[in-house]
User: Fold this.
Amino acid sequence: MRRWSPFAAGLLFALGLGLSGMTDARKVIGFLDLFGRWDASLAFVMGGAVAVHLALLRFFRAPAIVDDDGCAVPSLHWLDRRTVVGSAIFGIGWGLAGYCPGPALVSVVSGQGAVLGFVAAMLAGAGLYAVWSARRG
Assistant:
């Protein structure tokens, strides 16, 4: 059962994204259009997710992260140039395309060219970063 938990969580997340309409890039771009025809529905989806998370947080505590398994341990110096630049690239891509990784992966099943192109670019970028960081050592 433990091996199926991540799958079940991902499936629930995908269903939530699909049912809430967050796989529609126009809805996301409408949320980001603060000075045009702003669509606040994404804020309600995010607010609902945060509320559920906070309610369940007291019942399910994640174990402390240890670095003997290769996970990054948070430090006091987490805000650095890489974090800021990476966040900016993520935000610009999200704003231009209307997709972030989760909804884009869910939307792949639609077969739309724009979604497939975004996911291909996202995977290529992740691959290039993996090669670049491996060379940095």
In short: The first helix runs from residue 5 to 20.
